[in-house]
């Protein structure tokens, strides 16, 4: 049977093993997919051991995506634009790195939620790994102007520079938010809720046609999405659909079959929303 894994820290509660097992059953593929806890210090050795034991592919989650990018011998253009890898495929004796997070988010928003992203004026809070992973895909999907704010403003500036579209992508300070008007798409790409507190956001960011998205799911997504509903957002979307869609994209890369995601999503949604 073929051998896959997700690496991260913490990783014990990752839904990826369950998602990939379901996809494999659907596709009739005999697959072993495990969760392997690895820190920045242990990741390289753990991945080598995994490859030596016949590991053919891996997903990579926090806080290892930048490391996975650095150790990939070859990468896709979308991984290079994100500077991060969430999907590794063994090619000979090397790792090939891709990033399916952004495509997964866009597919969830456009196909599952039926949102038209084109020309949506967009605000992204956060400029860390998660933000870097999705920004290029959002731009490719045709959003309008993209504003990026971050607690540490230098990181927002750096991300804006990396994205390389100065007329379209702008860094702003958190203190500027009340003056920015409203946005068709507001994305919380911070890890703030995992630490319990959210930056204070003015309700003027959202209007009656706005969609608000938190890249996390379950308990971590509750504070931001509750705030977004209170602020009048039309849609308040958590990251569970993105998780399923990025997994489907990785599965397709590894196995050449694109899984059907609706049943898996509905099942997880019933248990983790
Ligand atoms: P991830 O891969 O989840 O993006 P990360 O690269 O550590 O993880 O980035 C975390 C993001 O959440 C950053 O944008 C971070 O802001 P800083 O760059 O200022 O650290 C943001 N973040 C985390 N905790 C936060 C908090 N309590 N308030 C505001 N922003 C926070």
TrEMBL record:
Enzyme class: oxidoreductase
Pfam family, one: Shikimate_dh_N
Residues annotated as domain Quinate/shikimate 5-dehydrogenase/glutamyl-tRNA reductase: 111-192
Organism domain of life: Bacteria
Residues at which shikimate binds: 14-16, 61, 86, 101, 217, 246
Domain SDH C-terminal as annotated: residue spans: 239-266
The Shikimate dehydrogenase substrate binding N-terminal domain, residue ranges: 6-88
Molecular function per GO: shikimate 3-dehydrogenase (NADP+) activity
Entry-linked SUPFAM superfamilies: Aminoacid dehydrogenase-like, N-terminal domain (SSF53223), NAD(P)-binding Rossmann-fold domains (SSF51735)
Annotated metabolic or biological route of this protein: Metabolic intermediate biosynthesis; chorismate biosynthesis; chorismate from D-erythrose 4-phosphate and phosphoenolpyruvate: step 4/7
Known EC number: 1.1.1.25
Binding site for NADP(+): 77, 126-130, 150-155, 215, 239
Residue spans crossing the bilayer: none
Catalysed transformations (reactions): shikimate + NADP(+) = 3-dehydroshikimate + NADPH + H(+)
Catalytic residues of the enzyme: 65 (proton acceptor)
Keyword terms: Amino-acid biosynthesis, Aromatic amino acid biosynthesis, NADP, Oxidoreductase
Function, in words: Involved in the biosynthesis of the chorismate, which leads to the biosynthesis of aromatic amino acids. Catalyzes the reversible NADPH linked reduction of 3-dehydroshikimate (DHSA) to yield shikimate (SA).
Subunit structure: Homodimer.
Family according to the record: Belongs to the shikimate dehydrogenase family.
Protein known as: Shikimate dehydrogenase (NADP(+))
Organism the protein comes from: Luteimonas rhizosphaericola
